[in-house]
Amino acid sequence: MKGIASGLFQALHRVTSDNRPGLLHGQVLSGRVIKLMPNDTAVISLGNQQVTAQLQAPVTSGDQYLFQILSLEDKIELKILTKQSKEFIYDAKQVLERLGLAATADNKRLVSLLVERNLPFRQSALKQASSLLHKASDKQKTLGALLQAIEKQLPFRSGIIEALTVRQHATLSSLLQETERYLTEKPSLSNTEKALLHNLASLNGTPGSPVQAENLSQKIYLQVKNMMLLAGCDDEMQLLKQLSNHEELQSNQSMKTLLLQVLNEQQSGKSQLERMQQILHFLNGIQLTAHQDNTQMVQWSLVLPGTFMKAKDIQVNIEGRKNEKGDIDPEFCHVLFYLELEHLKETVVDMSIRQRKVFLTVYNEHNESLKKTTHFQSQLENGLNQAGFDLASIQFKKIKGSSDGVTFPSYFSESGVDLKV
């Protein structure tokens, strides 16, 4: 079940966001031939734009190909690596051979996923990723981290791959709870460990404590605020600012800084030091994937411990067009929540905002139970009205792996009840 729900969360995120940079020399990416032109040129839909390109080989109008960009100077020059088959797949072996890489099972899997996810990549990046994947002890986890590094155009450094791996496969809630429990039970603590314990307690909240519906939004707001203040995701930026302004360096008490100090002091047990290292990797992973933007769009991704509402990690994606100040325009944006709750289990909340009208879709395996919660609808409407928004519609859709529910890789199919307000 988890693969379907988390896959839905990522799919909705991918469908609605396209913040990738423009075309780059050497890139490999999929394109469709729109129109044939004289002198071996053609209009091609490439990435998120249409271009007129010079081709090295004949093509057929309407067909899909995998191209490599050879030149972006006077005119775009493209090399055809392979043509898409009728089954909508590419020949990964042929692609690898033309890029000078061995057609191993790992490499074919890597190329297939890059093409399937429509992620442009360069030959040099593919070679680095192939080398790291070959050496990896857990190839599946490393593969996921490599795909994300390519998508975010991050360097293939061991620390970055480790951070992305932990970010994808660990939960912040469990790491924080276990470390807080260890420090609470430890007979004596250093000053650094005491400060770290205080931060952990602030982020974890009180496990299992009931939260009233009217207080939930305030609690989530405080969690976001605590996460931004304590996690240390902007430590490096603050340090750079102090150095640039020739200011006296100020030590901070962020969890990231405290974790580094505890690791340097080596005052905890080996297993706990490893767990703290995992938390540090997780925070670095959040920092690497939290923010991306271009001239028109901006996107934020955040992870919150969900202990206060008997949930595991709460994942939040916020994306939308920029306003005049360069911030997300609150009148037009898209917010996604992924939660794993105690009773309802995995839940995806998809909230679209258009001209301050809120369109809400809740995906859950137990959507029949969710339909019985419509008595909370007036509270939701009142809360949105106080914030300057109107509730336009609520939909409940069931997540299931069958043909009548949400399936992949076609992202999602619609089913359920639409409650119009």
Give a brief rundown of this model.
The chain has 421 residues and is an alpha+beta fold. It is 41% helix and 25% strand.
Describe this structure in words.
The chain is of the alpha+beta class and 421 residues long. The chain has four domains: 1-21 and 294-421, no CATH class; 25-90, OB fold (Dihydrolipoamide Acetyltransferase, E2P) (Beta Barrel); 93-152, no CATH class; 171-285, no CATH class. 41% of the residues lie in helices and 25% in strands. It has 14 helices and 14 strands. Strand 2 and strand 3 (49-55) form a beta hairpin.
Alpha carbon gyration radius? 24 Å
Mean pLDDT: 79
Beta-strand fraction estimate:
25-35%
**Count of domains:** 4
Number of helices: 14
**Which oligomeric state applies?**
single chain
Kindly report the spatial arrangement of strands forming the biggest sheet. Answer: 7-8-9-10-11-12-13-14
The end-to-end distance, rounded to whole angstroms, is 31 Å
Total number of beta strands: 14
List unreliable stretches of 5+ residues.
Answer: 15-20, 402-421
